[in-house]
């Protein structure tokens, strides 16, 4: 099982914090989330995505493999303070 | 004094509280061209009129309340005002900026700026209705909190007030207007010292732009609404929305800046605020962004906390209750204090207590009594009397300088700079002290909206200078700094994983990029006579005032303002030693496995001074000042 948490604007639209899904890659995980929670797949793909606190741009992007117990954090980018 | 330029009221009011004399301060069109308005105008006026070696608490100190030429012309997010003075916290020039509607009201009363000198023998509030200025006895208002006192003052007016903290000369007392604050640097205490409780303004004068600027403003507002930050992020999550990203990027100051991440960050995040406590978002007059939070507290609708308050009264003191932060934010507002400095001082006091340097009863993670502590600070009771002096003072008395988190005497805001070293440089060189905005706000590029390498020194000085100059002049127009999000194209924010975004992030810190940025920084104002759509203020100034304005001139005004503040401070005795950060941030890596996770300040400063056209002691060179047409005396 992969644990997924949401942050930023995406959290406001999904309204859930914490879900568990089965997926072998980040791309697969995003597709499942998109279907289950009616979120645009593109919006997910264009978020900042961390796997075990590492940004996927430093891993293998959407092809990053996932293993049981991994944690994904999905955050819509922003700024302002 | 009239002006050929649109956007200005054409008058600067000078009030002497000692004699109660009213005068007009001479301010020419040449001054307007060189200094524009806002904080730069204030810096020039204070530079010319505040005697070099006086103490902040003295009648010769001047409070300069200044507006910009866009205020009152209908520009989006343009009702802000600036208030400057000698700071009791730092002893240096400090400017503080505030939203709300006071700036607009001051212009409509017929004034671009209000200067207040002297000291009233009795407690007073000033009422300005166009040319009619009345001094009222403030005995019945003294002691009232910032919300109460505004309710007692005339309705449908612009107001600035102080609370008990300002009355009792708390070093970080703020100036309050509506639900907004000119929080930093203790200018509320200067008002308190002068026995000035409030200034109330009203008028019906129109501010005429030189040209028909409505179509331009309409487009500007549309662009603000379309941009992901000003159109979505800020309205929906407020500045509070930054907590999560700051935690991920290790720039969320935790436990008096010991760490950059907080395990309970979700509990104090913008998402938590929006989902559990937000009633609606609110904004300043003229603003389409509307970043303010209205929350419910004890059955009342009150203003909710900004990011700084969540971070510093959350992670930085290891408090995971957002409900407490809502309450403390409201209390600090009522008492009239800067939440950043108050919270930073509490965190430092907690560590002093933990290490046995000062037994004050304050502990990380245990905070049930903080409401009482804040009240004690405002009324200078018990340990509150010492806490009211700020971190620098406490470190000089009790020790712990290595973890006294301030620069130039002003406490740092919530961004932990060992996760974004450019921000660290900015904190150290910002003219008013540990300010994240006056610093150039490099953390935006290093962690928040972009992801340039946060640990490299490459390009940081040069980019920091460019941003500092731009922030300076945009502030001087009367605009809210959030309108500068236009600097970051939407596609970079909407597609952070794209090849283009990754390329942009890499290019900015590529070897040689800094030199290119600096060529732009150091170019004379005539060299870049172009408009830049990413900075809509440039054309807005042209249209509103009738001044010839382009990027070259615009950035030169900002550079002029920054250097003017610098030479003011040098005249007060500032040296390069004051461009400092505590050793915790420069010598202890945030992450022991990453030796680069600390601020290499000496190296950054050196590059910064050279790039600014200063000598290695941090003093602007004569030719730099000459090219900016500011002298030194």
Keywords:
heterodimer; A: 81 residues; alpha+beta; Ubiquitin-like (UB roll); five-stranded mixed β-sheet; B: 633 residues; Aldehyde Ferredoxin Oxidoreductase,  A, domain 1; Aldehyde Ferredoxin Oxidoreductase Protein, subunit A, domain 2; Aldehyde Ferredoxin Oxidoreductase Protein, subunit A, domain 3; 3 domains; six-stranded mixed β-sheet; four-stranded mixed β-sheet; 27 helices; 17 strands; globular
Distance between the termini of chain B: 27 Å
Structural class estimated from helices and strands of chain A: alpha+beta
Give me the side-by-side strand order of the main sheet of chain B.
Answer: 2-1-6-3-4-5
Largest sheet of chain B: 6 strands, mixed
CATH topology of chain A: Ubiquitin-like (UB roll)
Q: What portion of residues of chain B is helical?
A: 25-40%
Mean pLDDT, all residues of chain B: 96
Approximate shape of chain A: globular
Structure annotation, total helices of chain B: 27
Q: Please give the CATH architecture of the largest domain in chain B.
A: Orthogonal Bundle
> How would you sum up the global shape of chain B?
globular
The helix tally of chain A amounts to: 3
CATH C-level category of the largest domain in chain B = Mainly Alpha
The description of the largest β-sheet of chain A is: 5 strands, mixed
Count of discrete domains of chain B:
3
- Output mean pLDDT of chain A: 90
Q: What fraction of residues of chain B sit in β-strands?
A: 5-15%
Total count of strands of chain A: 5
Structural class of chain B: alpha+beta
The CATH class name of chain A reads Alpha Beta
Number of domains of chain A: 1
InterPro entries (chain A): Beta-grasp_dom_sf, Mopterin_synth/thiamin_S_b, ThiS/MoaD-like
Protein name (chain A): Molybdopterin synthase sulfur carrier subunit
Keywords (chain B): 4Fe-4S, Iron, Iron-sulfur, Metal-binding
Family (chain B): Belongs to the AOR/FOR family.
